[in-house]
C-alpha cells in the first residue's frame, strides 16, 4: 500500500466533500470527529454513506469519534478507519471484532477494511507505543501521531519553536511513533502542518519526513496535497540510481560494487523501496 497524502475532509460539508473528490490525494479521510459538531454528526454520517456509495479515484477512509459504533459505516465498505484516542495496540481489538463481524455478514474480504490509529494523543498513549510490535493486527495498515491533543493533555503552551520545528518533547514522540510503525511492519504517516498557507514550510517538513522514513503525511487543505505528493515521490535521479543498484545485484550475490562503493543488503532494500514507491498508489 502506498499512501503519500491523506486529506482530512469535514464530513458535514457537502461543498468540501464535492471539492475533495477531485483532489489528487492518495486518500481522503472523511472526518466525523473534531471538525464536526456533535449535533451535526448524524447528518454528516449520512453524507459519508452517500459519498462511499460513489466511485472515487482515492482511497476513502473515515474518522469517527472514540468508541463510536463503526458498523454502519463499515457496511459501506470504506478503505479503512482512522481511529482517534487509541492508547495501546490492544485497544484496537474491540473495533477489530466489530468490523470483522460486518465483513463476515456482508461477504467482504476478511481484514479488507484497514485501521490507522492516532497513537500519541495522551501521555498514556505515548508511553504505550512499544505495544505496536510484530505480530500486530492484520487489519492494522499504518500509524500516525499528533501533537495538538498531546500538548493540551500535558498542559504545554506550545509544541513548536518559533522556527516551526517541533520542540524536543514532540520530536521524541514523533521518533517513537515512527519506530512503533516500523516495528509493527506498517506505514508511518507524518502528522499534519496546521498552517496550510505556508507551503514552503510544508515542503521542508514533508521532505524531512520522507528523509526520516515516514511513508506519507496528513493534510488539512487541498493545496497541501500536491506538495506532499511531490515530497514522497522519488525523483528521476533517485529512480535511475535505484535501478542501477538493483541491477548491480542481478547475479544474486550478497554484495556488489557500484561507482567504487561496496553495496550490501540494506542498499538493495532501499533501492527496491524507491522503485516500489515510484509506481505510485495502487
Describe the structure.
This protein is of the alpha/beta class. The chain folds into 2 domains: about 5-235, Phosphoenolpyruvate-binding domains (TIM Barrel); about 240-280, no CATH class. It contains 11 helices and 10 strands. Strands 5-4-3-2-1-8-7-6 form an 8-stranded parallel sheet. Strands 9-10 form a two-stranded antiparallel sheet. Helix 10 crosses helix 11. The mean pLDDT is about 95.
**Overall pLDDT level:** 94
Shape: globular
- Counting DSSP H or I runs of 4 or more residues, the number of helices is 11
- Determine the CATH superfamily of the largest domain: Phosphoenolpyruvate-binding domains
CATH architecture of the largest domain: Alpha-Beta Barrel
Determine and state the CATH class of the largest domain: Alpha Beta
Instruction: Please indicate the count of domains.
Output: 2
Strand content: 5-15%
Task: Please give the radius of gyration in angstroms.
Answer: 20 Å
| Poorly predicted ranges | none
Name the features.
282 residues, alpha/beta, TIM Barrel, eight-stranded parallel sheet, 10 strands, 41% helix
Would you spell out the secondary-structure blueprint of this structure?
Elements: E1 5-10, H1 14-20, E2 27-31, H2 41-52, E3 59-63, H3 71-74, E4 80-83, H4 93-106, E5 114-117, H5 123-127, E6 142-144, H6 148-154, H7 168-184, E7 187-190, H8 199-212, E8 216-219, H9 222-231, H10 236-248, E9 256-258, E10 261-263, H11 265-278
Parallel strand pairs: 1-2, 1-8, 2-3, 3-4, 4-5, 6-7, 7-8
Antiparallel strand pairs: 9-10
Helix pairs in contact: 8-9, 10-11
